[in-house]
Structure to design on (766 residues):
């Protein structure tokens, strides 16, 4: 702790906002950053989290794992044994050495999802990857994300890199000033833009939409959920059947084409492959023109509405935006691609406030100017292992070692993993088909977890090392699109024997003979000053104020200059398509991709297409479940926190359903219901509302998995985790992204005695 009095307010930062905190002896007092016009209420989860019963106090080892002679499947109710730090690190170092000697570095999977802290140094994903690179010479890694698994792969084939399209393109300032129509496929829910990796000092989305709406801009919320757009946008809700956005986009494109409303000059100059797509659009090959009448039956939106909307789009500055949610489903590549094609047909790509922006509003990073100087970044070293998997294929990897899988034009074998080292993440939140994943995580010989609380992943591990929470350590908060560097000062002492990930890895590295390589001779304080220096130097070279580290730390924050709002690479391409070619094979926007055609994937054609789900609603499972991101926490983080808990009913997560669907099932507000399909079942508390379409139920992710005790293959999750229901399949062979957004279920009123919630109870230990 650096020069911090016990009763001071400590500046700090989280992925959902900058704030100050003060420990009052029992709970944490939290006040948002004074410059934030719309601070996130998620910050209030910190108030009761620091000393919660779910916190891990000491190193623990699964008792059954210690008895290697009797191979016992892992369960969530097995006993753990307390270990001292010296003893547990000796044990772990020995196990790591054994695995490396017997199986090599490619037998270790380094798991982390990167959201454990907004700090640039105590970033669990960077720390565990750096350690495995230094101590092992590498590890099997994962690529892409659950949020953007399909888009990160398809966008480079179509126009450019995911980061450039989503973060350095159309800004909220441009929307406030220039946009006339914002066509938001999947909406722009503020609960999503509350969150930004690395932190955020000002939430600007609500004000920008309100400003645009007052000017006369028309927002269209194309979603099964009415509140996927804030009230300030004064949006027109177009309730669309789940997963049918591509059909609507195609019908809009068909109307633009057949009524001579599309910008043919733009298509000719800036795009390639339109003639192939045109044949599909007009039905010349399949006999099905993608008309408004055709799409009306699929989407539930009338043909008249579709035609009227198509007529409106060319009349002003129109922005086509596609959310993360659409590509978190089977064939998720298609809406991302088709949204870009629709924008190209309108000819406005690259114009201020117009064209195309993927994921605008899906994170707090999007729609902002990039910083003009670099932010502190911890090097992870060099990974000497070439094997990798798409992040959402972890169960496939563990269940099918050596079996081939397709990814982005390559065929590769799944690695044979003996040890999983996980720090900073809870896959029992973000992975699909949890019952299948339970079987998968029984395949490795050893699972090691660094964790601050007894998450389901920690309860399923063999060696559990207690890690500090962000407010129990010093760090630097920064994001590449936020104009503030935050001194994240420690506000409270660590609980129990919790230690920083860095200190754990430093001691482990010493046992493995690689301490100098890992620490480079620096302690945590010296690392913070070291990581700050490139930012300070860049500020000084540009003539900006550049205080030394000690002065920055005393101030608590530092303003960072923003780069120009120049529209990024798409504006440059529009200005000079020859001098500023895109990174695609043709240098243009690829409406038809010869590269993808060469892959021969039947689940990802060489141009955007309507591909209906292979799991539609049926008489057995007539409801479509939307398992979207929660409004009360980040993923599953701090589900035991005060704000998350205050939004549950009877301690259970809330599921929303339409009044007609509730009436047919005899369900009223506050009733506990059971959602089920062939993969599993969970309990949730019902909220009846017409903010969801008929035939749709919505249950956010993030409730900690809490299986009812017993030996069944599909135990009931009593707490409301929808991933007991979702499908564990790839979006397509191209991207192998996550399909966790959508599944089909049935729902009924739960009449039995309510089982207790044990999600936050520590396991038995001796």
């Amino acid at each position: 702790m650096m020069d911090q009095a016990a009763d001071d307010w400590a500046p700090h930062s989280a992925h959902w906002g900058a704030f100050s905190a003060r420990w009052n002896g029992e709970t944490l007092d939290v006040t948002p950053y004074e410059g934030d016009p719309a601070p996130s209420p998620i910050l209030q989860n910190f108030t009761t989290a620091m000393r919660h019963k779910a916190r891990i106090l000491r190193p623990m080892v699964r008792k059954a794992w210690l008895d290697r002679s009797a191979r016992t499947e892992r369960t969530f109710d097995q006993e753990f044994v307390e270990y001292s730090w010296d003893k547990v690190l000796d044990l772990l170092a020995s196990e790591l050495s054994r695995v490396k000697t017997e199986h090599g570095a490619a037998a270790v999977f380094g798991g982390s999802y990167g959201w454990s802290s907004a700090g640039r140094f105590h970033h669990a994903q960077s720390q565990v990857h750096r350690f495995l690179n230094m101590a092992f010479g590498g590890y099997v890694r994962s690529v892409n994300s659950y949020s953007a698994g399909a888009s990160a792969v398809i966008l480079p084939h179509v126009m450019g890199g995911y980061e450039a399209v989503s973060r350095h393109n159309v800004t909220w300032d441009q929307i406030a000033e220039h946009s006339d129509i914002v066509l938001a496929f999947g909406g722009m829910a503020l609960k999503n833009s509350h969150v930004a990796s690395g932190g955020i000092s000002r939430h600007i989305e609500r004000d920008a939409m309100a400003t645009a709406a007052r000017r006369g801009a028309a927002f269209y919320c194309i979603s099964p959920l009415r509140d996927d757009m804030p009230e300030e946008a004064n949006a027109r809700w177009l309730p669309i059947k789940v997963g049918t956005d591509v059909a609507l986009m195609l019908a809009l494109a068909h109307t633009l084409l057949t009524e001579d409303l599309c910008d043919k000059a733009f298509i000719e100059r800036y795009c390639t492959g339109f003639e192939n797509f045109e044949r599909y659009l007009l039905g010349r090959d399949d006999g099905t023109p993608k008309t408004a009448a055709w799409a009306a039956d699929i989407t539930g939106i009338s043909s008249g509405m579709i035609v009227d909307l198509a007529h409106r789009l060319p009349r002003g500055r129109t922005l086509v935006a596609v959310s993360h949610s659409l590509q978190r489903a089977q064939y998720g590549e298609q809406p991302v691609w088709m949204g870009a094609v629709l924008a190209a047909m309108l000819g406005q790509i690259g114009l201020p406030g117009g064209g195309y922006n993927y994921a605008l509003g899906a994170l707090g990073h999007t729609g902002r100017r990039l910083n003009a100087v670099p932010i502190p970044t911890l090097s992870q070293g060099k990974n000497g292992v070439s094997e990798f998997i798409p992040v959402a294929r972890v169960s496939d990897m563990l269940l099918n070692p050596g079996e081939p899988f397709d990814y982005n034009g390559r065929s590769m074998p799944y690695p044979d993993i003996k040890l999983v080292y996980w720090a900073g993440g809870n896959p029992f939140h973000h992975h699909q088909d949890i019952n299948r994943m339970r079987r998968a995580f029984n395949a490795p010989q050893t699972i090691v977890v660094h964790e601050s609380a007894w998450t389901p992943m920690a309860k399923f591990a063999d060696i559990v090392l207690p890690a500090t929470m962000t407010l129990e350590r010093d760090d630097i908060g920064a994001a590449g699109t936020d104009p503030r560097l935050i001194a994240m000062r420690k506000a409270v002492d660590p609980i129990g024997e919790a230690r920083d990930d860095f200190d754990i890895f430093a001691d482990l590295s010493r046992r493995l003979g690689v301490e100098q390589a890992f620490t480079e001779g620096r302690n945590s304080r010296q690392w913070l000053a070291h990581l700050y220096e490139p930012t300070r130097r860049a500020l000084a070279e540009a003539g900006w104020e550049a205080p030394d580290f000690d002065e920055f730390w005393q101030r608590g924050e530092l303003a960072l200059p923003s780069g120009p709002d120049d529209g990024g690479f798409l504006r440059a391409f529009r200005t000079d398509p020859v001098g500023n070619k895109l990174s695609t094979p043709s240098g243009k926007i690829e409406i038809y991709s010869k590269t993808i055609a060469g892959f021969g994937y039947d689940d990802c054609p060489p141009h955007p297409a309507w591909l209906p789900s292979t799991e539609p609603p049926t008489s057995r499972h007539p409801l479509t479940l939307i398992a979207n991101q929660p409004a009360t926490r980040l993923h599953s983080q701090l589900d035991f926190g005060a704000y998350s808990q205050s939004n549950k009913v009877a301690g259970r997560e809330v599921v929303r359903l339409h009044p007609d669907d509730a009436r047919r099932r005899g369900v009223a507000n506050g009733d506990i219901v059971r959602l089920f399909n062939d993969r599993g079942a969970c309990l949730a508390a019902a909220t009846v509302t017409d903010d969801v379409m008929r035939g749709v139920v919505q249950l956010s992710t993030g409730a900690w998995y809490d299986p009812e005790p017993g030996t069944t293959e599909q135990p009931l999750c009593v707490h409301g985790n929808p991933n007991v229901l979702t499908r564990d399949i790839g979006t397509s062979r191209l991207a192998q992204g996550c399909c966790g957004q959508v599944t089909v279920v049935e729902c009924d009123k739960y009449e039995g005695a309510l089982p207790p919630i044990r999600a936050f109870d520590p396991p038995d230990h001796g």
Notes: Residues 170-366+576-599 form a domain with the Dimethylsulfoxide Reductase; domain 2 fold (CATH 3.40.228.10). The two ends are 33 Å apart (CA to CA). Confidence is low (pLDDT under 50) at residues 1-6. The first strand starts at residue 10 and ends at 14.
